[in-house]
Specification:
By secondary structure, the protein is mainly beta. The chain contains one helix and 24 strands.
Length: about 200
């Protein structure tokens, strides 16, 4: 499945006839399909509820998903707690999300792996305010050569400006960094809670 700023959601999502929105490609895809996004900025709040590989084609510049301060930039979850999904993101910038929980990325009951991604300038505010960059709940989050930077959690409780992890596993590999994030109360970079939470960094 292909997405381009020059595409149309009335297209069939092929290379020659790409969709215009990332969400249209996600909705059309089957489990473990590949969604390839061409360079450009996409003003969307995407919801992923199936196992997918989503990659940016950066040949002609960055691929940016802009949450436009209208919710989490990326929301990954499945309704059935007995199930789990696997999501792989590559070469994406996820910016300008704003939500009460998970401004940049909200991930629940899933395995998320990111490579060469950036989670930048996202915010949580209002009631809840947890995980300005990434909010992980009963999930595994793995970063390779990816950055979580300049995100913030405002208001109360204001926890985990960079990453909030609750009963989750978080791994940072290959020059992955959590930098210059802030929170109003606790955990400007990381906030970890729950006996099932584990954080490991290898840079």
């Amino acid at each position: 499945w292909y997405v381009s700023n020059d595409g149309s959601d009335q297209n069939n999502g092929s290379y020659d006839y790409p969709f215009a929105s990332v969400q249209q490609a996600i909705d059309a895809a089957n489990d473990y399909d590949l969604v390839e996004i061409f360079s450009g900025e996409y003003f969307e709040n995407i919801v992923i509820n199936k196992s997918l590989n989503i990659g940016g084609n950066n040949e002609n510049g960055d691929v940016t998903i802009n949450g436009n301060q209208t919710g989490s930039t990326v929301r990954i979850e499945i309704q059935e707690m007995s199930d789990s999904i696997d999501v792989w993101l590559y070469g994406l910038k996820m910016v300008n999300g704003r939500s009460d929980i998970g401004g940049g990325i909200f991930v629940s009951n899933a395995r998320l792996e990111m490579e060469m991604c950036q989670v930048l300038y996202n915010q949580t505010a209002g009631q809840g305010s947890q995980g300005g960059g990434i909010y992980a709940f009963h999930s595994t989050v793995i970063l390779h050569d990816s950055d979580v930077e300049n995100n913030n959690s405002n208001d109360l409780p204001g926890l985990g400006g960079g990453i909030y992890a609750e009963n989750s596993l978080v791994y940072l590999y290959d020059n992955s960094w959590v930098l210059n994030n802030s929170s109003d109360v606790s955990g400007g970079g990381f906030y970890a809670t729950g006996s099932g939470t584990y954080i490991e960094m290898h840079n």
